[in-house]
Amino acid sequence: MSVTAIDPTRSVSDRLEATGTSNALELRGVSKYFGALAALQDITLSVRPGERRAVLGSNGAGKTTLFNCITGDFLPTHGSVRFFGEDVTEFAAHERIRRGLRRTYQISLLFTGLSVLDNIYLACCGVSRNRFSFLRPRRNDALMATAEDLVRVVHLEDIKNTKVSALAYGQQRQLEIAMALSGAPRFILFDEPAAGLSPTERSELIEILTGLPGHMGYIIIEHDMDVALRVSEQVSMMHNGRIFKEGKPAEIEEDPEVQALYLGGGHD
Predict the structure, then answer these.
(1) How far are the Cα atoms of 18, 21, 88, 93 from residue 85, in angstroms, in the given order?
(2) Separation CA 84–CA 82 (nearest Å)
(3) Beta bridge partners of 239
């Protein structure tokens, strides 16, 4: 399958106008069944370029299945997925990655025997034209320079030569974000990046996410509502495989139905 060429001289808005859409991500009537179990039911969702959105809901609401359908880990049973105007519903995960979609996972997927910098460098190689090269990077290697930049973005420059196996859990989560940022993605899906983090590490995570370039949109799944509401502009609430409520963070936080379902009747 060929990759659609992207003209770097055209702005995001120009490219979207050419496709007849104004959205980075569009889901229309997406459902996913596992036998008789409906994990997702008729999900319709639109996210603008550069928008930061949180998807909240209790365990089993369908959040990770939603991500899997967006990234191509699962193909939807019904419905369509469009990425910057292109129908990617039937595309494999690697084809969506080549078009600028990235994600992190709930469980860390890292090369624990390699250094922080090596992990990021390999992620950069994986989305480059020379991803099958076995040559050692030269001193002026452009991908290594990019990896060095990403180390700084996620605040790991002081431990860039440390093996991943020696990192604290929160540092591993920061490394995953750096790897997701490789190749200048257009959109990222963050799956519970604050899970297991200390209060200090959560504050650093918020700083990293809010410091990302304005054109880079993302969706974050997060159980920590304090984190989710601080790093998002829009919120979608899920329950039993459906989206039942959408709004601004303040609206969602104050909504009685949300408090009753998700917060146990209140939230300070």
Answers:
(1) 9, 6, 9, 17
(2) 6
(3) 242
Domains of the chain are: 45-75+90-100+185-268 (3.40.50.300), 114-183 (no CATH)
242 exposure class (CB count in 10 Å sphere: 0-12, 13-18, 19+): middle
**pTM for this one?**
0.84
Cα–chain center distance at 15: 22
pLDDT tens digits in sequence order for the chain, 268 residues long? 333 333 434 444 454 444 445 899 999 999 999 999 999 999 999 999 999 999 999 888 999 999 999 999 999 999 999 999 999 999 999 999 999 999 998 887 899 999 999 999 999 988 866 655 555 666 567 888 999 999 999 999 999 999 999 999 999 999 999 999 998 899 999 999 998 899 999 999 999 999 999 999 999 999 888 899 999 999 999 999 999 999 999 999 899 888 887 666 444 4
**Residue found under tokens 């419905």:** 79
Beta bridge partners of 83: 25, 86
- Reading the block at residue 200, the tokens are 């200090």
Two tokens at 57? 């809901």
Q: Where does 93-160 show beta strands of DSSP type E? A: 101-103
Beta-sheet strands, E only, within 70-164 = 78-83, 86-87, 101-103
Per the CB < 8 A criterion, the answer to whether 26 and 9 are in contact is: no
Strand locations in the chain (E): 25-34, 37-47, 52-56, 78-83, 86-87, 101-103, 187-191, 217-221, 234-239, 242-247
For residue 163 the two structure tokens come to 């093996």
Sheet arrangement for strand 37-47? 37-47, 25-34, 78-83, 86-87
Quote the CA–CA distance of 90 and 81 in Å, as a whole number: 9
